[in-house]
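Pilot study result, target chain (414 residues):
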Amino acid sequence: MTTETAAKPLREAFSPFIVPLLAAAVFINYVDRGGLATAAPLIKDELALTSTQIGILISAFFWTYTPGLVLSGWMADRFNAYKTLAAGLAIWSLATFFSGFAAGFVALLVLRLLLGVGESAAFPVSSTLIARHVPAARLGAANGLIIVGLSLGPAVGIFFGGHLMETLGWRGVFIMFGAISLLWLVPWLLVTGRLTDRGAADHEPGAGPSFPDIFRRPELWGASLGHFSVNFAFYFVVSWIPLYLVKSQGYTLGEMANVGGGLYLVYAAGSFLSGWLSDRWIATGATPDRARKTIFVCAHLVTAAGLLACAYVAPQVAIGCLFVVAFALGAVGPHIFATGQTLAGPKAAGKWIGVQNGWANFAGILGPIITGMIVDSTGSFQAAFIVTAAGALLGVAGWGLMIRKIEPVPWKAD
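Predicted structure:
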């Protein structure tokens, strides 16, 4: 390496296609992970499963996804982040593909565990690359694009998946989605094939904060609680609203697909507008702390109010409340990862987001099983909406109170 190359700013080597491709990977991530929820009414009947078993299948994904986030974050910071994501996507695409051949509960359970292993690479790698290469003033827009991918994934998965299942069946859709997902590897390898992502001093052995250093930071626990709260509400919507619309509201699979797809389009709009607004607000003089905390607190309060209303209002009004909840959850999305990236800095973003997202995804382990048990025991979703609304309120304490200020942590090595 020449002196001129070594002195070249790392951002100059970052292809403009990478953030859109990261957003595309997250889009695929949520198309594939949401397939089970979309197919739940069909799988439940064909395989004679209880709501509790459906909840276990949804939860099983997080049994491997949650610890996998920490491992992926470490790998993204330590090794080649580009290859880490490529390997993860290949694993989760194959798990989706073979789910179409599953003959029963046990086979689906094993494939859901494998899906969680692969999908755990997406967010730690994305946060590592964005923290290293995207200027602080653009974090809202970059993460907003990632969250748009997150929200459009379930929208496409529910809308097209739901309609396709009416003709191809749930097995055919799993096979098709898994095969199409693998095609993402072609542009990714073309764009990143010659990039090593080892050009910064951050990658030298021993550089950057360790996991114990990160665990000692109170900001980590505030961000983790806030992220858990977001996930608890979001995974309820992702995992159970299709079954709720079909079994409790009497929608057909096609009607459910239309409503579900619309919810995620509204979620995407909330993500895009929130990311853009925060960048504009910060550009006019607001601190990241003020801008992001204001959005966090307002969005969590609106989410909790919307979910609580769903438990008591008429069915038609409940659908309207779900759209309000979708917009509020979307508005939170860009700031979850921008906050972690800001606090951790480029030296620790992968590990920090891996840990934060790991703790947050206990919501995915606990929430689906709790909801399944509530629905089986009460015969309705009312109590589940109330419990989820309470979970959404935890974010006010996490983001608003436990994080003193959203600014870079002064690591000992700095």
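One observation from the pilot: Residues 139-181 form the longest helix (43 residues). A full batch analysis is planned for the follow-on phase.
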